[in-house]
Amino acid sequence: MTDLAEHARGGLPDKRQVAASFSRAAQSYDSVAALQRKVGQQLLAQLPGSISPARWLDLGCGTGYFSRALGERFPASQGVALDIAEGMLRHARPLGGAQQFVAGDAERLPLRNESCDLLFSSLALQWCADFAAVLSEAARVLRPGGVLAFSSLCIGTLQELRDSWQAVDGFVHVNRFRQFEDYQRLCGDSELTLLSLQTTPETLYYPDVRSLTHELKALGAHNLNPGRPDGLTGRARMLALLKAYEQFRQPQGLPATYQVLYGVLRKEVN
Ligand SMILES: C[S@@+](CC[C@H](N)C(=O)[O-])C[C@H]1O[C@@H](n2cnc3c(N)ncnc32)[C@H](O)[C@@H]1O
Questions:
Q1: What residues line ligand 1, using a CB cutoff of 6 Å?
Q2: What is the dotted CATH code of the domain comprising 15-157+175-203+259-266?
Q3: pLDDT digits (tens, 9 = 90+) for 184-230
Q4: Per-domain residue ranges for the chain?
Q5: Of 238, 123, 227, residue with least CA distance to 171
């Protein structure tokens, strides 16, 4: 796989399915989002120190944890929290942090041209098949001098689970991710100036495979790809999966690796 946009023709996870899955996960998400917290904090730390946005957007805000963090960091500014999942917005809205909570798609932002100074997006854009469209929308919506700071996931994420399923039945059981080089190329081709782009592996450990798959479901991030097998996972296949995953076991438990990407881009002042 080189670019998820190519998969759009064959069908990526349907956006309605993505929205429904995250809406269902709105109540459980925060209890299992330790990695998401860590990544979002690291993204916040990468914002240019000089930034003082009059209006910011938390793109793919989920339960709004980072909308609240942005609200605290920039108390004098106006905040917009946007997500494709209505259920997430219903959860986030009463908790505050932003002035507006908006349903929308990162590939087609329902915002006016040059209406924001900061677009912050943590671990949402890996769900977008057309990352070039996301960048083009960011360039449209940002004011000159504005910044897009995002984190996402690259290929290699959940590789242990992917390899284990591959050994069992060869089906796609793990969400697809872009390669780092594709992010690099798409950012380079965009109307924005790339300030930084790097990946960091993060590994979580689980006592068993069920704990990992339950957590993915509680996050709303379990597999939604076309090509996933329908119906119940048979007991024999599940036992084969557990056995295959055991080959990765380390003293801390079963590893699940995430290849986390951080990018910061700026819209130049002409
Ligand atoms: C893993 S959660 C991250 C939530 C939050 N940013 C955080 O760090 O806790 C991903 C969020 O992205 C949202 N999302 C997925 N695709 C989207 C799209 N095309 N446009 C806007 N939001 C999207 C999902 O509904 C979900 O709430």
A1: 18-19, 22, 33, 36, 40, 60-62, 65-66, 83-85, 88, 105-107, 122-124, 127-128, 221
A2: 3.40.50.150
A3: 999 999 999 999 999 999 999 999 999 998 999 899 877 665 555 55
A4: 15-157+175-203+259-266
A5: 227
